[in-house]
Manganese/iron transport system ATP-binding protein (Aquabacter spiritensis), 292 residues
Amino acid sequence: MNAPAFARSAAHAPPEAVDGVRVANVTVTYRNGHTALIDASFAIPTGTIAALVGVNGSGKSTLFKAIMGFVRAARGEISILGLPVPAALKRNLVAYVPQSEEVDWTFPVLVEDVVMMGRYGRMNFLRLPRAADHDAVAAALDRVGMTDFRTRQIGELSGGQRKRVFLARALAQDARVILLDEPFTGVDVKTEEAIIELLRGLRAEGRVMLVSTHDLGSIPEFCDRTVLLKRTVLASGLTSDVFTRENLERAFGGVLRHMTFGSGDGEVAMLSDEERPLLLKADGEPAKRTET
Ligand SMILES: Nc1ncnc2c1ncn2[C@@H]1O[C@H](COP(=O)(O)OP(=O)(O)OP(=O)(O)O)[C@@H](O)[C@H]1O
């Protein structure tokens, strides 16, 4: 895991290397002619939590859509565990945990039904769940601590509980690659910690989590790798290598609030586009956050 070879760009990785997710020279153009991603390349090994970071409109959702097969790459290739996207989707290898805004919460559906959707890919067209499907749903709900809510309407849950239900859907599917779109928005610190702990457990099982987030401050704590996007991949690799002041300033330009405290060796810069700022020491290394 985390062999130095993976820190190199996908374009330079040896062709025989099988990555969790490998994006090579991908360009995506929407029907209206807008090119949202240009020549994007990176590779993430299995057993990794990777952050996908960039300003609004930098192409994070577009990249997710390309990995999910919702939009086609005009150029380049995406492979998942060494398979092209259609083959990976057919094997139920990829799951998506959506942003809250993408879901119609008034739709009357029970928590256990949402989680059962993760099993659809394994059922025939009648979608009649078998014992194994019910067992997988129960295990997934248990793992995210939502068993007691299984017969509740999804619309009755809090933001953090909804996230956990969609994570349970990905677990019921037994996805090897899980794409999480802003998993911490509207989630309290305790739930965020619980989700991070869960992601660490999934990493230990060799899964890949690609997490789109604006929480710069929490990324060094739980994401081993980072992909910095700005219509293309500005940098990718180990978070400690990618999270430099220079890279972040290139990715965020004037968007970040930027303050400097102290002077000389004790100087700390704060970069933030959200409520959890990233602190950088004078040497450019991320500073440890202390909880208040
Ligand atoms: N269906 C579409 N048709 C045309 N252009 C689109 C479409 N979806 C997104 N875009 C454009 O592509 C660019 C990248 O959008 P994308 O949604 O991937 O950004 P993002 O990084 O996910 O942003 P955010 O942080 O706001 O979610 C934007 O300029 C957006 O306007």
